[in-house]
Automatic annotation (TrEMBL):
Organism: Nonlabens spongiae
Name under which the protein is recorded: Iron ABC transporter ATP-binding protein
Keywords: ATP-binding, Cell membrane, Ion transport, Iron, Iron transport, Membrane, Nucleotide-binding, Transport
Upper classification of the organism: Bacteria, Pseudomonadati, Bacteroidota, Flavobacteriia, Flavobacteriales
Entry superkingdom: Bacteria
Subcellular location: Cell membrane
Bilayer topology annotation: Peripheral membrane protein
A GO term for molecular function: ATP hydrolysis activity
Length: 251
């Protein structure tokens, strides 16, 4: 279980969002974070690994205060997929995946058979085998996004946080990949928390939803999608209707 307790996030003294009740994420839950542009979805995800963005509160992970863990222990608990490209573009896809096994390898970084097996499995699951020897700089945005998601699975952590992980993917890859992640989360007992603007997909797949609206982050059961009230509050456009759980565009 990951629990964000008495949590407040922001930059310097400027609060972006706060939680009036603790946010608790259980094993094998697939959780979406929704909210309009600038609501604080990315800040919430980043704050889990970046203490500077936490104005208040603690993170309890599997009974431990997250801050008491060392860097390797943290890397075995949480994998992050962010929108920033914080890696060398001269790396090959396979090398990037190999590096994400670092928390499990010896000081010299020698990969074991088990590490290679995980990498091969993820390359195959994500249809990336053909790109394994390509430089990251040569990939399309969508290909790179699949590689970065694959990297988080290779890291093999109980909690995976993703910021708009499918924003560059075409509709086939998007639906297939999110369904794959949902199945992976159930079969491997992982908790996946992802920020998204894809309300229809979040509605179809999420077990729970975190909404961030006017500075308040709240956790809801998936049923929040079946009633229009919350969604109308967050997305008040007259060009959209939320009727019986379905989203309609009134163009
Ligand atoms: N480095 C920063 N310094 C100060 N304010 C920031 C910084 N980064 C983001 N913000 C502000 O924090 C607020 C939340 O931003 P955040 O990126 O978390 O929103 P978001 O919900 O992920 O938005 P989007 O859907 O547009 O990606 C915004 O008002 C943004 O301008």
């Amino acid at each position: 279980m990951m629990r964000l307790e008495k949590y407040r996030i922001g930059y310097g003294q400027c609060e972006v969002a706060r939680c009036e009740s603790d946010l608790a994420f259980a094993k094998a839950e697939f959780i979406s974070i929704i909210g309009k542009n600038g609501a604080g979805k990315s800040t919430l995800l980043k704050s889990i690994n970046d203490r500077n963005l936490r104005l208040d509160g603690t993170i309890n992970i599997d009974g431990y205060d997250y801050e008491t863990l060392n860097a390797v222990e943290k890397a075995k608990k949480i994998a992050l997929v962010l929108t920033e490209k914080s890696f060398s573009h001269f790396l090959k896809v396979r090398e990037l995946l190999e590096l994400s096994r670092a928390p499990y390898t010896s000081f010299y970084g020698k990969l074991r058979d088990e590490d290679q097996e995980i990498i091969e499995q993820v390359l195959s699951d994500f249809e990336l085998a053909g790109l394994a020897e390509r430089n990251l700089s040569t990939l399309s945005d969508g290909q790179l996004q699949r590689v970065l998601i694959a990297r988080s699975l290779v890291q093999d952590t109980p909690y995976i946080l993703m910021d708009e992980p499918t924003s560059h993917l075409d509709i086939n890859y998007k639906t297939d990949l999110l369904l794959h992640l949902k199945e992976y989360c159930k079969s491997h007992n992982k908790t996946i928390i992802y920020a998204t603007h894809e309300l229809q997909i979040a509605q179809a797949l999420s077990d729970k939803v975190v909404s961030i609206h006017e500075g308040l982050a709240e956790l809801h059961a998936r049923e929040v999608f079946n009633t229009s009230q919350k969604l109308k509050e967050i997305f008040p456009s007259r060009n959209i209707s939320f009727i019986n759980g379905s989203i309609q565009f009134n163009f």
